[in-house]
Amino acid sequence: MAGKPAPDRPALGVSALVWHDGRVLLVRRGRPPLKDLWSLPGGHVEFGESLRDAVTREVHEETSIEIGGLRRIDVVEIVGRASAETPASHHVLIVFSGEARSGRPVAGDDAAEARFVAPEEFDELPMTDDTRRLLGRVPE
Predict the structure, then answer these.
(1) CATH number of 12-134
(2) Which residues are catalytic?
(3) What residues does each domain of the chain span?
(4) What is the pTM of this model?
């Protein structure tokens, strides 16, 4: 089962805080467990794939946006629980910041919607806690 983590090991993923004209690229998740929540685009790292290649591919697959100027800015750990004592899932995400180079947001892959969102709209959208925290970062 190359590419799929064992159920007793964390899955490695990437996501990107993509800026364009003072707005951030967000996706509304189309599948559980985060269905209908807004988050940064991203996904799994394939076996043998570099982190930068993975985040570039995942953002394009989910949004049709080409990105560049990438730099690592954070690590997010998400542990889903079946019960207080039993983990159901474990993901470690390497988060990048970058800018949109070309394209218009079009939802693809597991995204139900993709668009650039202005900071004044952030409070209106239901989103993951980590996404809300990361949106506080200003591009340098």
Answers:
(1) 3.90.79.10
(2) 113
(3) 12-134
(4) 0.88
pLDDT digits (tens, 9 = 90+) for 81-135: 777 888 778 889 999 999 999 989 999 978 899 999 999 999 999 999 999 999 9
CB 39 within 8 A of CB 29: yes
The enclosing H or E element of 132 equals helix 129-134
Eight-state DSSP code of residue 127: B
Given the structure tokens 């925290």, which residue do they identify? Answer: 133
Distance CA 46, CA 55 (A): 10
Rg (CA), the chain: 15
Residues in the chain: 140
Average pLDDT over residues 13-37: 93
Q: DSSP letter at 6?
A: P
How far is Cα 124 from Cα 2, in angstroms, rounded to an integer?
40
